[in-house]
Each structure stands twice: as structure tokens, then as C-alpha cells.
Write a structure and sequence with these properties.
globular, alpha/beta, 256 residues, binds magnesium ion, TIM Barrel, two-stranded antiparallel sheet
């Protein structure tokens, strides 16, 4: 091979760029709601996260009694148990900003037509058993595909079997495990893409960050709202931080 010196230099530079760890990315936890005075997991919170140019906006998904997907965190809203209530009843629920309780479909469509902010879909663990968690998983993947947002959607879940099911049904999807009880080696062996652990887990197991990076696993921590912890994680080259304070984290990262 006869490479010109200029081409050789270009190839070496590209290789070095590849080796350089990328900057920590910001994920708005349940959207950017806290400093914008909108309800968490509302479409307005997602829109604020997009306006901030966050890398990702996280949200939580449950299944109604008649198997329609809704976005909210808790298992109940205004005293109504999500999994035991029909979609028709749930659609009457209003959030504090006047929005209807969002269906996953309306939420995904609101996040479509942009590529700046990834949709970080948390599949909640059903209170009605494993089969229903797995049914929820399949419904999420089908709807993400149907609405055309698969290329901007990543998945997180506390249930390890749910994570495995996502990889089985959507092998190219990025899946991070939330529960904090698996080593990077175990995640890599299982074929998952990385972890999203509570920051206290990473403070107790600091070597998991470097171990995960060496295995090309992605690293993320929740829910990091204090500057000291943000800086502790940034200094250890974490890939992503999930926070209720995306504005503050963006400011810290922009100063670096
Ligand atoms: Mg969540």
C-alpha cells in the first residue's frame, strides 16, 4: 500500500479521535420539568428537554387494563391504579398543566421529527406479574417501530428479563439495566449495552465505570441533582448523567 503522507496523517488523526472519550451527555429525568414548572413526564416536559438540546429525555411507561400504553411514573395517578383502569377512563385524567395523561403514542409523536434529543423509554415493572411486564415490553417495541422513532429511542428497565426481551425483539436497540445488582461483566455476557445505575451504586463500585468502558458498555447514572456528584461522575468519564437539573448540568459541561 502506498499511502501519501497527508492521507496517513488523516487516518492517524481519525483513529485518535476514535480513542478520545466523548463528553458526558445530559438526560433530562422525566423531561425538563423542575425549572420549567410543568408536570414530570408531560409532553411539555419533553418539549422543554428538546428545546434545551439535551442528549436524551427519559420517561416511564405503563400498560392500562385494556393494554394501551401510557406515560407516567407511579403506578397510580390521582388515586387511579393505571394497570386496573381502561384507556377510556385514563384519557379523562388531566395533568396540572391541563394536558391529558399522555398515551405513549402521543408522546412518541411529540418527540418525532427531531434527532437532537433521544427518547429514553423506561419500561416499568408491572405489579401484576412478569408476563405483563413482558407484554408491556413487546407493546413498547411495536409502537416505537410503528411510530417511526426506533432510530432515536433507547430503553431502560429495572427488570433484567425485560432488558433481555428488548434485545431479543429489537437487537439493534440500546438497552441499559437500572437495578444496580449486575457487574459490567454480567451485563456484557448477557448482551446488554450498558448500565444506568443509581449514583450511590457507582460510588460504592467505582471500578465499574472503568470496567464498563473497557468492555465498550455505555454508562449512565440516576438521578444526579447535586453538583458535587455531577463533577465526580464527569471526572470519571461517565457517558451520560440523568438529572432533574438538566440546565445546571449543561452549564457545568459547557464550562469544561
Ligand atoms: Mg424512570
Amino acid at each position: 500500500m502506498n499511502l501519501s503522507p497527508l492521507l496517513l496523517l488523516l487516518l492517524i488523526s481519525l483513529n485518535m479521535m476514535d480513542e478520545e472519550p466523548s463528553k458526558t451527555k445530559v438526560i433530562a429525568h422525566r423531561g425538563a420539568w423542575k425549572n420549567t414548572n410543568v408536570p414530570e413526564n408531560s409532553i411539555a416536559a419533553l418539549q422543554h428537554a428538546i428545546a434545551l438540546k439535551c442528549y436524551g429525555s427519559e420517561f416511564d411507561v405503563h400498560l392500562s387494563a385494556d393494554s394501551v400504553l401510557f406515560v407516567l411514573h407511579d403506578h397510580t395517578i390521582q388515586g387511579i391504579p393505571i394497570e386496573k383502569t381502561t384507556a377510556a377512563e385514563l384519557s379523562k385524567v388531566k395533568l396540572s398543566n391541563g394536558e391529558s395523561l399522555p398515551t405513549l403514542e402521543s408522546y412518541l409523536l411529540a418527540g418525532k421529527n427531531q434527532t437532537q434529543t433521544r427518547l429514553i423509554l423506561e419500561i416499568k415493572t408491572s405489579q401484576l406479574g412478569k408476563a405483563r411486564s413482558l407484554a408491556l415490553t413487546k407493546k413498547c417495541i411495536d409502537l416505537v417501530s410503528k411510530t417511526g422513532v426506533a432510530t432515536i429511542t433507547d430503553y431502560i428497565a429495572f427488570d433484567f428479563d425485560v432488558c433481555l426481551q428488548v434485545k431479543k425483539l429489537a437487537p439493534t436497540a440500546q438497552v441499559q439495566y437500572l437495578n444496580g445488582d449486575k457487574t459490567p461483566e454480567q451485563l456484557a455476557t448477557a448482551g446488554l449495552d450498558g448500565f444506568d445505575y443509581h449514583f450511590s451504586v457507582l460510588k460504592r463500585n467505582e471500578h465499574w465505570l472503568s470496567d464498563a468502558h473497557a468492555r465498550h458498555l455505555s454508562t449512565n447514572a440516576w438521578t444526579v441533582n447535586e453538583e458535587e456528584t455531577m463533577r465526580w461522575l464527569i471526572n470519571r468519564k461517565i457517558n451520560m448523567i440523568t438529572t432533574n437539573e438538566p440546565e445546571q448540568l449543561l452549564k457545568i459541561l459547557n464550562q469544561q
